[in-house]
Amino acid sequence: MDNVEPGWRVLDIGSGNGVLSLPLCAIGCEVTALEPSIGMRNLLFAEAFARGMDRLKVDARTWEEVPLHAYRNLDLIMACNSLHLTEQGLAHSLNRIFKFNPRVVFLVSELYPGIEELPEHEDYTLRFNEYCETESSFAYHHIGEVLDHWTFKKGGKLSDPELRDITKTLAVQDDHLWIKDSSTVGMFWWESNKMRKRDGGMYGGACMESVWK
To answer: Strand ranges (DSSP E) for the chain?
Structure first.
């Protein structure tokens, strides 16, 4: 992640097992992992321990529970495949990130009906977006989460054949239900117009593909 610098203050919404949080922590960022799932937090703690990291901060609240003053004016707020699973949906949750006034917003999200209607914000400019097809697996705590996710993904009530197909693909592993799937993922990088002016175009002109290195 060549565009992220050591010392950046970072919030990772729905950090999971730390796939983004831990690499940024390793290069010297001050990272807070926001993860309400105790199962995912346990995986995060185990991975951090295995890597010998003790600088990572963990917040067990949901994104909806975090007050506006908690993480104001950070360098980076990011969310990887988490905002579309919030109670209020991706668009509302993304708008809420902008209200926290970070320098950079980085979003990775599975595409679903309505994703093309990402909100715009007058104080931010979308500098990079890319789409890719990827294999993906989903872990669920119970069958209700499975049905809620796939109802959301399909954009409406599941038919009986769809329910049967989903049930056939379920597997049990590590006390979770798993489904292997493929999906289109969108990646988006916004920069604060105010911060770019203040910092003399600190982020402007960079090749945003380096985010994925």
So the answer is: 9-13, 30-34, 57-59, 76-80, 104-110, 124-140, 171-173, 176-192
